[in-house]
Amino acid sequence: MTLVRLTLRNLAGNAFRSWTVFLCALVVAGLTLSATLILRGAESSLRLALQRLGADIVVVPQGSEAKVETALLMGTPATAWMPAGNVGKLATTPGVAVASPQLYLASLSNASCCSASEMFVVALDPANDFTITPWLKQRLGSDLRLGEVVGGARVFTPPGERYIKLYGYHLTLKGNLEPTGTGLDQTMFLTFETAQAVAKGSKTLAEKPLTIPADSVSAILVNVRPEADPRLVARRIKQDLAGVSAIPSLDLFQTFRRQMSGVLRAVIALMGITWALAVGFIALVFSMAANERRREIGVLRALGAPRTYVFQSLLAEAAILALGGGGVGLCLSLLAIYLFRNLLVVSLGIPFLLPSVPSLLLVVSGGLAVALTTVTLAALIPVYRISCQEPALAMRE
After folding, report:
1. pLDDT tens per residue across span 128-155
2. Distance (Å, whole) CA 1 – CA 61
3. Of 250-254, 305-309, 340-344, where does the model show the most confidence?
């Protein structure tokens, strides 16, 4: 009898043991993949959000730091105001290369242009914007005009419509940015001129008018000169401008980083406990199976089967169960994360972006390796002990 046929017959002959090991491998692989995807997805989202902002320093009204960070990362609509004159003052601050103002607005509730009930709207100044304007010139060959907008990955024109309605004003969607897994995906970008036109039209077109305080901005994105230190420039801005907070890009999203650290610690603890329980349970199951199969293994040895053959057949059983359970666990984990990724973002309070296909394949391979290693290690000692037992002794017991 070949090794493969013997292994498959043994698996079919002991359904309880096979299903127990199968389920343990499923849980270990699924949990490993879920934890890895969530943490890597959150980390990728933070990195892409910083790249999309493209600023060395973000200047916001004092006291609105957390609100603005949440808006930029999670897409929660927020408003914050400071004098527009700060833009000119920042432009003359030593070490500052470019100061680009932004207005933070919010759509009406249950907007029909995206999957969020309220959409974050950001107004830019094309004259000195360095976040969206370079992308526009590269992709479209022009800046945004009056009535034109660019949306995140989750912003769309409603089916059957030619325009997006914002406070009753018709806007043309010129393109969508690449997904980041953050609130930027449900953010709409337009010019200051378009924002003022929307605010003016909302007085007669919308149920609730859009109000933009005169000579005000919400935030100012700053790029420093190559020779300047962003932290020193941020400190100088705080000293020179009253009522503002200057946040270096490396210090952005600290609240979310702390949340991620807490989630990481909890996940590591949960994975450690699950792995230890799985190893112990699988070892117990294989020990019980080895005791039950002493006579069978003794007969195989008496018929001339070497120890290595018995050892390999038992380990092959463990490997097949590990790969089968691990594969099913990985598939279920991927399906659950894909279907409930928005619920994960809301419940954990962190952004999330599915990885690229090569990264996903690497993570899946790692999950299978963890399942295979777990089952093999758990089964190794019982399998070795029974394979080394003398045939005559095994057949007498």
Report:
1. 888 777 666 666 666 788 888 888 888 8
2. 78
3. 340-344
- 99 with 91: CB under 8 angstroms? yes
Q: In whole angstroms, what separates CA 133 from the centre of its chain? A: 26
Strand-pairing partners, residue 61, are 244
The model's confidence at residue 394, banded by pLDDT at 50, 70 and 90, is very low
- For strands 120-124 and 169-176, give the pairing: unpaired
**pLDDT confidence of residue 115:** 46
Q: Which residues pair with 82 in a beta bridge?
A: 217
| Separation of alpha carbons 178 and 181, rounded Å | 10
What is the DSSP code (8-state) at residue 212?
-
Chain center to CA of 54: 20
Q: Are 98 and 223 in contact (CB under 8 A)?
A: yes
The residue written with tokens 């401008």 in the block is 241
Contact 247, 80 (CB under 8 A): no
d(CA 153, CA 178): 6
CB contact at 8 A, 102 and 123:
yes
Q: Residue 58: beta bridge partners?
A: 221, 247
Which conformational region is residue 304 in: left (phi greater than 0), alpha (psi within -120 to 50 degrees), or beta? left
Half-sphere exposure of 71 (CA within 13 A, CB side): 24
Closest CA to 385 of 253, 267, 291, 257: 291
What is the average per-residue pLDDT within 242-263?
74
Question: What average pLDDT does this structure show over 12-19?
Answer: 69
What angle is formed at CA 155 by the lines to CA 254 and CA 358, rounded to 5 degrees? 65
Between residues 395 and 281, which one has the greater pLDDT? Answer: 281
Q: Is 113 a residue whose pLDDT tops 60?
A: no
* DSSP string for residues in 32-87: HHHHHHHHHHHHHHHHHHHHHH--SEEEEETT-HHHHHHHHHH-------EETHHH
Could you say which DSSP state residue 180 is in? -
**C-alpha dist (Å) from residue 219 to 79, 81, 206:** 10, 8, 26
E strand or H helix that includes residue 319? helix 307-339
> What tokens appear for 63 in the block?
């006291």
